[in-house]
C-alpha cells in the first residue's frame, strides 16, 4: 500500500526535465571529445576525433532511446503498483475469512456435529461471507470436512466406549440383581439360623455395594441406573434403599420422613443419588459420628437432608464440588474428566440431578460437617402407596383383625356370656389366615351362652396367645382326670355346655370297651373338642 | 412360615440388614428369643420408630409368638428377633415364656392308671 503510493510520485518529476536527459549526456560527451582532441598530439588527432564523434553519437542515441521509453516505464510501474494493491486486499480478505473460519465457523460446526447432525448436513449449513473467492471457499470446505470427520470419528469412538461401559455395567447389574433375589430367598430359608442368616446379610450387603458401582458406571456411560420401578414407592423405603447401598449404613440415622411416595421412574435415580451422597457423608466423616437423614416437604417438593459431622468442606473444595455439580447440570461431565482417582460419586449425582431435575446443594452444617440438601421436584412425588413403608405394610392385615378384636376382648376379661354375641363376628375374622387367636374365640362361641361366668377365667387366663390346637388338647386331657375327683365345676370351664347340663344320664349306655379306647385317644390328643365334650360326661358319670 | 412375597421384592428397595439396623443378630439375644416365645407390647407404637417395630407392637397387643410375628411381618425370624430384642431392651415389649405344651398329668399317674385298669 505504502509503496504503491510512492511510485507514481517518483515517476512524475522524471517526465518534466525529459529534454535535459536527451541533451546533457551527448553534450558532456562531445565536450570531453573536444578536450581529448585538443589534448592529443597532432598525429593522433584525427583518430581521436573520430572516436569522440562515435562516442557522442552512441551516447546521443542511447539518451534518445531512454527518453523515448520513459513514459512506458512509468505506466508499468503504476500498473504493478495497482496489482500489488489488489493482491494485498485479497490477502487481507482471505486472512479475515480464515480467522472467521477458525473463530466462528469451525466451533459452530463441531457443536452442531456433537448435537447429532451429520457431516454433510453441517457442511451445507456453513455460511461463508458473500463474495469470497470460490477457490478459497472450497479450500475452507475441505478443511472443515476433514476436521468434522476427525471429530465425528472421535465422537463415535467415545460413544462406543460409553456403550461398552454401559453394556458391561448392565451385565454386572443383571448378575447382582439375580444374586440379590437368590440371597433374599436364602435369607427367608435360613431365617431361623442366626449364624447363617448373619453371613447371608453380609453377602447381601457386599452384593448391594457391587450393584451400586455398576449403577454408577451405567450412569456415567450416559444411561439410566439399574432397574426400573413401575409402582410408586414410599419415600421411607426409598431412603432405606439408599441406606442399603452404602458401606456404613449403621451410622445413618433415619429421622422423620415425609409421608409421600416417589413415582416409579424417579425411584432408582433418587435411590442412587442419595446413596452416593450418603456414601460421601459417611466416608468423609469420622467413623464414630452419626449421619442424619431427614426428609421434609417444602414448597417445590421434598427436601432430603443429609448432615454429617465431618471436617466440612474448605472453600476450595466446595468450589470444586459445585463446579462438578454445575458441569453435570450443563452436561459436560465425561468419563475422561474423572482423573486418575475417579471421584465417581459427585459426577454421578450431578448427572442424575440433571436428567431428573433434582437440585443438590452443599452447605456447612451446624455440626461442623456438611449439610447436603437434595430437593426432589413435586412432579416426581405422589401420594404414598403405603404409609410407614412398604415392609410394614405387610403388617396391615393383622391390625385390621385387631380392630375387630376389641369386642371379644372385653368379655374375655369380664364376662363370657357375651361370647355368643361375638361369635359370628369372630367367625368372620377367623377367615383370615394365621388366626391363632380368633380360633379359641370361635370355639368358645357356640358354647358361650350356657357357660357359667365363674368357669371361664380359667380358660381366659390361658387363652390370649395360645394356639387352638394346644387349647383343644388341654381340655380333652383335663376333662378326663378332673372327672374323677372334683366334680363338674372345673370341667364346666373346658367342656362347656353339655358338660354342665346332662352329667349322668347317657352314661350307662356307653359300652365298656369304648372307655379305654376313648381314654387312649384322649391321651394321644386325637379327640376333637365337640366329640370330647359329648362322650366325656358319660364316662365321667360312670367313672366314680 | 416366611413365604417370599412378590410384592415385597417389587415394592421395597431396602435390604434386610437395613431393616434390622445391624448386620447380624447377636447370638445371645437370638438365643433368648425362641420361636415360641410370646411377646406382649408394653407401650403404644411410636410414629418416630421403625415402622416394623411399630407394626410388631400393634400385633403384640395380645401375646403373640415370635414365629407368628415373623409370619405377619413377612420377615425372617432372625430379623424379627433383632427388632424385638430392641423393643425388649427398651422395655416397650415383654417376653413371656412359651405356654407349656399342655398341662399334662404326670406320666407316672397315667401309667399307674393303665396298670390298674389292666389289673382289673
TrEMBL record, chain A:
Catalytic activity: ATP + protein L-histidine = ADP + protein N-phospho-L-histidine
Enzyme's top EC category: transferase
Chain spans, region Disordered: 395-544
Spans through the membrane: 20-41, 47-67
Record-linked SMART domains: HATPase_c
Pfam families the UniProt entry points to: HATPase_c
EC nos: 2.7.13.3
Domain of life: Bacteria
Bias (Gly residues) ranges: 433-456
Single annotated GO MF: kinase activity
All copies of domain Histidine kinase, residue ranges: 270-380
PROSITE patterns: HIS_KIN
Low complexity compositional bias, start-end: 457-468, 476-498, 525-544
Gene3D superfamilies the record matches: Histidine kinase-like ATPase, C-terminal domain
Alphabetically ordered keywords of this record: Kinase, Membrane, Phosphoprotein, Transferase, Transmembrane, Transmembrane helix
Keyword Transferase: yes
Protein's name in the database: histidine kinase
Organism, scientific name: Streptomyces zingiberis
Automatic annotation (TrEMBL), chain B:
InterPro entries: DUF742
Pfam families, sorted: DUF742
UniProt-recorded name of the protein: DUF742 domain-containing protein
Provenance organism: Streptomyces zingiberis
Taxonomy of the source species: Bacteria, Bacillati, Actinomycetota, Actinomycetes, Kitasatosporales
Amino acid at each position: 500500500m505504502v509503496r504503491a503510493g510512492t511510485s507514481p510520485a517518483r515517476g512524475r518529476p522524471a517526465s518534466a526535465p525529459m529534454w535535459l536527459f536527451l541533451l546533457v549526456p551527448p553534450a558532456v560527451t562531445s565536450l570531453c571529445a573536444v578536450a581529448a582532441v585538443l589534448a592529443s598530439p597532432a598525429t593522433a588527432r584525427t583518430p581521436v576525433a573520430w572516436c569522440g564523434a562515435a562516442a557522442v553519437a552512441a551516447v546521443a542515441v542511447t539518451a534518445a532511446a531512454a527518453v523515448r521509453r520513459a513514459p512506458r516505464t512509468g505506466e508499468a510501474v503504476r500498473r504493478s503498483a495497482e496489482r500489488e494493491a489488489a493482491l494485498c486486499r485479497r490477502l487481507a480478505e482471505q486472512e479475515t475469512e480464515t480467522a472467521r473460519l477458525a473463530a466462528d465457523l469451525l466451533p459452530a460446526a463441531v457443536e452442531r456435529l456433537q448435537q447429532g447432525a451429520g457431516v454433510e448436513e453441517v457442511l451445507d449449513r456453513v455460511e461463508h461471507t458473500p463474495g469470497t473467492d470460490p477457490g478459497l471457499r472450497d479450500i475452507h470446505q475441505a478443511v472443515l470436512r476433514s476436521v468434522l470427520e476427525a471429530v465425528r470419528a472421535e465422537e463415535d469412538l467415545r460413544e462406543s466406549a460409553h456403550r461398552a461401559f454401559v453394556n458391561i455395567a448392565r451385565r454386572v447389574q443383571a448378575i447382582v440383581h439375580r444374586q440379590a433375589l437368590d440371597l433374599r430367598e436364602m435369607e427367608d430359608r435360613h431365617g431361623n439360623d442366626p449364624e447363617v442368616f448373619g453371613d447371608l446379610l453380609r453377602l447381601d450387603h457386599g452384593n448391594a455395594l457391587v450393584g451400586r458401582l455398576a449403577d454408577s458406571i451405567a450412569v456415567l456411560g450416559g444411561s439410566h441406573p439399574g432397574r426400573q420401578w413401575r409402582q410408586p414407592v414410599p419415600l421411607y423405603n426409598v431412603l432405606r434403599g439408599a441406606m442399603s447401598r452404602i458401606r456404613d449404613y449403621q451410622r445413618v440415622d433415619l429421622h422423620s420422613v415425609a409421608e409421600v411416595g416417589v413415582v416409579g421412574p424417579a425411584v432408582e435415580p433418587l435411590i442412587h443419588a442419595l446413596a452416593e451422597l450418603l456414601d460421601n457423608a459417611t466416608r468423609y466423616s469420622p467413623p464414630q459420628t452419626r449421619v442424619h437423614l431427614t426428609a421434609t416437604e417444602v414448597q417445590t417438593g421434598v427436601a432430603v437432608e443429609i448432615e454429617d459431622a465431618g471436617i466440612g468442606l474448605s472453600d476450595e473444595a466446595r468450589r470444586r464440588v459445585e463446579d462438578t455439580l454445575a458441569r453435570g447440570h450443563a452436561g459436560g461431565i465425561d468419563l475422561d474428566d474423572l482423573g486418575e482417582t475417579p471421584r465417581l460419586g459427585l459426577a454421578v449425582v450431578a448427572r442424575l440431578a440433571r436428567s431428573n431435575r433434582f437440585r443438590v446443594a452443599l452447605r456447612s452444617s451446624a455440626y461442623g460437617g456438611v449439610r447436603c440438601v437434595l430437593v426432589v421436584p413435586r412432579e416426581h412425588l405422589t401420594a404414598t402407596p403405603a404409609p410407614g413403608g412398604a415392609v410394614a405394610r405387610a403388617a396391615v392385615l393383622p391390625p385390621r383383625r385387631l380392630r375387630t378384636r376389641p369386642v371379644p376382648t372385653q368379655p374375655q376379661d369380664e364376662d363370657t356370656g357375651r361370647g355368643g354375641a361375638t361369635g359370628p363376628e369372630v367367625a368372620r375374622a377367623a377367615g383370615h389366615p394365621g388366626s391363632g387367636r380368633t380360633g379359641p374365640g370361635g370355639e368358645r362361641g357356640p358354647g358361650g351362652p350356657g357357660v357359667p361366668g365363674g368357669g371361664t377365667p380359667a380358660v381366659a387366663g390361658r387363652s390370649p396367645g395360645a394356639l387352638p390346637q394346644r387349647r383343644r388338647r388341654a381340655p380333652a386331657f383335663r376333662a378326663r382326670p378332673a372327672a374323677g375327683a372334683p366334680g363338674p365345676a372345673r370341667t364346666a370351664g373346658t367342656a362347656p355346655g353339655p358338660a354342665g347340663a346332662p352329667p349322668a344320664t347317657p352314661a350307662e349306655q356307653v359300652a365298656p370297651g369304648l372307655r379305654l379306647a376313648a381314654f387312649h385317644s384322649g391321651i394321644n390328643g386325637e379327640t376333637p373338642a365337640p366329640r370330647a365334650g359329648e362322650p366325656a360326661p358319660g364316662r365321667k358319670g360312670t367313672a366314680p | 412360615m416366611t413365604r417370599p412375597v412378590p410384592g415385597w421384592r417389587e415394592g421395597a428397595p431396602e435390604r434386610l440388614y437395613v431393616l434390622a439396623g445391624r448386620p447380624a443378630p447377636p447370638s445371645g439375644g437370638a438365643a433368648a428369643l425362641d420361636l415360641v416365645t410370646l411377646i406382649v407390647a408394653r407401650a403404644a407404637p411410636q410414629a418416630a420408630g421403625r415402622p416394623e417395630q411399630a407394626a410388631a407392637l400393634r400385633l403384640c397387643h395380645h401375646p403373640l409368638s415370635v414365629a407368628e410375628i415373623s409370619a405377619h411381618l413377612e420377615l425372617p425370624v432372625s430379623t424379627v428377633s433383632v427388632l424385638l430384642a430392641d423393643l425388649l431392651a427398651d422395655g416397650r415389649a415383654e417376653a413371656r415364656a412359651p405356654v407349656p405344651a399342655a398341662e399334662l398329668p404326670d406320666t407316672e399317674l397315667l401309667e399307674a392308671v393303665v396298670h390298674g385298669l389292666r389289673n382289673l
